Amino acid sequence: FGMAATLAWAIILKALGILGIGRIGRELARRARVVDMETWYYSHKQMSKEDGTEVGARSGLSALLLMSQSS
Question: The whole model's pTM is what?
Answer without folding.
Answer: 0.65
